[in-house]
Amino acid sequence: MRDPRYDILFTPVRIGPVTTRNRFFQVPHCNGMGHSQPLAHAAMREVKAEGGWGVVSTEECEIHPSSDLSPYIEARLWDDRDIPALALMCDKVHAHGALAAVELSHNGPTASNLYSREVLIAPSHQPSKYGYPSQARAMTREDIRQYRRWHRDAALRAKRAGMDIIYVYAAHDLSLAMHFLQRRRNQRSDEYGGSLENRVRLLREVLEDTRDAVGDTCAVALRFATEELLGPGGVELAEAQDIVGMLAELPDLWDVNVAAWYNDSVPSRFAPEGAQEPFISFVKKTTTKPVVGVGRFTSPDSMVSQIRRGVLDLIGAARPSIADPYLPRKIDEGRVEDIRECIGCNICVSGDMTITPIRCTQNPTMGEEWRKGWHPERMPAKRSSARVLVVGGGPAGLEAARALGQRGYEVSLAEARRELGGRVTREARLPGLAEWGRVRDWRLGQLNKLTDVSLYLDSELTAQDVLDFGAEHVVLATGCHWRRDGFGRSNGLGIDGLKDSPHVYTLDDLMDGRMPSGRVAVFDDDGFYYASIATDLLRLNNCEVSYVTTEDSVAPWSVNTLDYRHIRKRMAKQGVWVMVSHNIVSFDGATLVLENTWDGQLTEQRCDALVTVTSRLPHDALYQQLRERETAWADSGIRSLRCIGDAEAPGLIAHAIYAGHRYARELEEPVTDEVPFKRHFHTARENDLRRE
Ligand code: ADP
Ligand code: SF4
């Protein structure tokens, strides 16, 4: 069944004392569940193992209370009482034939210690990066000995939990082993500072300690950043090459990437598949040990190419494994077209950033494996032979139709336009967002295999059409549009004069090809990606662009998806004139009057057009009309009517997919008043839980 071209992806690889069944390696990734929701965490990792990943890793694992990452929720091995939570994961991962890996970390000055209230420690005195604006103190030699002991103890605990691969972490600017390498963080004058040999000493010692403690049965992996893109204060490629040379055979596995996280998990808008290759390809030439690296690989051909060309031995993945936990199995079973490809939107990252369970645009079951019992590949069978009418073929409608079809329902989907995909199709045409079209493509691919789902294009339905159709269940996923009147967070009464001005444009206008020219101001009252995409598009159309926001920074929410720095850099490069902390007072088609949000001072800007990105209005007219005609439902056979996705409340594409999926899961299922998901509770017994 498997295409023989991909056989090489399924050959076992020896990693020190352990062997992985194939080359698919789920590298460490955060998930917002970690130590606080161990059952949910274990269930999420289990699905990856079930889906064929050879290795399944934890996220960062705190080894000591002096490296407390609160409020971020990661894994934890502070003492023996933390073992059972990780043992849960190991048991589940092993049950499906995969290896379990743990990424041990002491984050030194990049911990927060907000919870433990310990004083931060670092190679040298320096400011903290997270938590309070305080400082970390320089570690003494005794501290270094202690830190080595903590790391060793954590490795032993990890082994007892059942881990097969124990990471030493020196990446992302997040761990002491890396901080000692960085000149900007290490100004010591003893044997741990100064020369490269000295700065590498601690990393070498910790690798040796770990091997000594657990190396008989566990592989020791080194996660190492080869470049920080910060110049001489940071790890640079030339020095990284020396370091890999110095430590070449010491770890059993090299896991290499670019730091920090925003340079590693770059959104697809700013980096293509395999973008790290120039920074990591040297490693395999320097060591005989297996090398794993990431590149948001979703194509088996790219994976094979990485191996054949001697770049990587193991295909590392965080995001591709989130979007499709069954990716390896689908390749193995000759179902490459079934792979739900990651779109590189980084909504998964926002879970960790907002300290909540991970979620994914493409995979609505991510983070819900335990909590809601949702599986990415399996759906409960339909409850009846009822027919379902889905109105609207955007992400919400497509996912509802697909998932209902998977349950076995007979589904008809009507779409007003001549193309499917709704906002996904439209947004994917914007600069840099082409990969987002995968949200539509995967669903269309699956829908085409479902014989009981019919798709009707060019079919704008009225309330009467819906009543005449005679389906038992009707779900409206009719989307939304951008407002033109300036109403939004900062202007609850709208902005005078905007609504009917021919010089005011919305994102819908731009997506429809109605493009301004000359000097254009973009007003961002939304804070995420839309406004910066508008500036990209306008610059490509040779407009002179200024960006105005009431916020104190550009696109502040984009910090949560790691877009922020890339957006800022691009705007700077494009010569976009940025004005933060300003609201719009008026625009007459030639003069834009702005008001400083702090001192009320007015300024004027000459411009020919204004693009507003403020808020959206649901297309819920059809829903309202059908509600008004509720008395006619029985005669039409309609038993339920729902409005979902942007038509209910405009949100992200991820919200629309989730809404469509949830609708399909819950259709005709028993309704209760209970909290609709499982939660972790603390009991006296659990507080005393010890591994027998
Ligand atoms: P969502 O993100 O909630 O899926 P979209 O805006 O992406 O919303 O998609 C909504 C889709 O519904 C659009 O493609 C739009 O053309 C379609 N649509 C809106 N009203 C109707 C209608 N009355 N009949 C059929 N299709 C409709
Ligand atoms: Fe990929 Fe987006 Fe899903 Fe993250 S949320 S795994 S980037 S599709």
Features:
single chain; 692 residues; alpha/beta; eight-stranded parallel barrel; five-stranded parallel β-sheet; 29 strands; 31% helix; 19% strand; binds adenosine-5'-diphosphate; binds iron/sulfur cluster
Describe this protein's structure.
- This protein is an alpha/beta fold and 692 residues long.
- It is 31% helix and 19% strand.
- The protein is built from 24 helices and 29 strands.
- An eight-stranded parallel beta barrel has the order 3-4-6-10-11-12-13-14, surrounded by six helices. Strands 17-16-15-18-29 form a five-stranded parallel beta sheet, with helices on both faces. A five-stranded parallel beta sheet has the order 20-27-21-22-23.
- The radius of gyration is 27 Å and the shape is globular.
- The mean pLDDT is 97.
- Bound molecules: adenosine-5'-diphosphate and iron/sulfur cluster.
- The site of iron/sulfur cluster has 13 residues, from helix 11 and helix 13.
